């Protein structure tokens, strides 16, 4: 039986992909949300969550131990860190066009708010 040499591919693609994921976490994902939450007025955030998040959704999230702002965007969060739009769009699985459309109900985030 002839000895075969296994050619191991370069890890450069995986390293680059890992670096992109780390950058994404800081810009669009939970690390970015945590950073934004550390800079917002909690009273304003709670007021906006009460205004924009349906009570039944709040109850379901509370029962699951999930914070409302981890699922629902509010104006104060998006003003503090606009790149989080990408995080919420990813969470909802919708395109930018749908996300900001009147039919989807998210267009009010860009209009006047409390």
> What value does the Rg take, in angstroms?
20 Å
Please give the number of β-strands. 0
Instruction: Give unreliable regions as ranges.
Output: none
Q: Report the span from N to C terminus.
A: 76 Å
Count of domain modules = 1
Q: Describe the biggest sheet? A: none
Mean pLDDT reading = 83
Structural class designation: mainly alpha
Helix % is 55-70%
Beta-strand percentage range:
under 5%
Gross geometry: elongated
Top keywords for this entry?
114 residues; single chain; elongated; 56% helix; mainly alpha
What does this structure look like?
With 114 residues, this protein is mainly alpha-helical. The protein has one domain (13-110). The chain contains seven helices and no strands. It has helices at residues 12-27, 30-37, 42-52, 55-64, 75-80, 84-92, 96-99. The protein is elongated. The termini are far apart.
List the helices and strands and how they pair.
Layout: H1 12-27, H2 30-37, H3 42-52, H4 55-64, H5 75-80, H6 84-92, H7 96-99
Brief overview, please?
With 114 residues, the protein is mainly alpha-helical. The protein is built from seven helices and no strands.
């Amino acid at each position: 039986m002839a000895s075969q040499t296994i050619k191991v591919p370069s890890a450069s693609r995986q390293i680059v992909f890992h670096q992109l994921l780390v950058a994404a976490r800081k810009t669009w994902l939970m690390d970015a949300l945590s950073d934004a939450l550390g800079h917002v007025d909690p009273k304003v955030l709670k007021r906006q969550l009460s205004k924009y998040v349906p009570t039944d959704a709040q109850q379901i999230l509370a029962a699951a131990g999930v914070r409302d702002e981890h699922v629902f965007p509010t104006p104060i969060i998006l003003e503090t860190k606009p790149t989080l739009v990408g995080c919420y769009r990813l969470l909802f699985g919708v395109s930018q066009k749908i996300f900001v459309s009147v039919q989807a109900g998210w267009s009010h985030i860009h209009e006047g708010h409390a």
